[in-house]
Amino acid sequence: MVAKPEIVDLTRIKPVECPCGQARRAFSESPEFPGTLHLTQISLDAKPHHHRDHTEVYVILTCDADAAIELDGELHPVRPLMSILIPPGVQHRAVGKMEVLIVCTPEFDPADEHFGDPAVSSA
């Protein structure tokens, strides 16, 4: 059987609460894609977290002038159309209001959102 393309209007997906704010998640049911795509509105109270199994790529779509990404405790300024690769085990959070597109592999599982020091929580 030949795989068929899928077209998704991310604005029509109901947002769900997440540690970063609100996410609209697509393609989680697609056998042709080994991950998920998230359109995420980052809130000002985004929480630092890490994943043991997931790799994420953030693409900054829009952001405040003082927005940043915190990676293992170090702040990095961001601007629209920057991209950040976040491997498993990296403590991260977005700082400031922004809208990001996140590609997550493998398929996103909320059970892989961990809070606290990755070195301590993975032991």
From TrEMBL:
Source taxon at top rank: Bacteria
InterPro entries per UniProt: RmlC-like_jellyroll, RmlC_Cupin_sf
CDD domains: cupin_Pac13-like
Name the UniProt record assigns to this protein: Cupin 2 conserved barrel domain protein
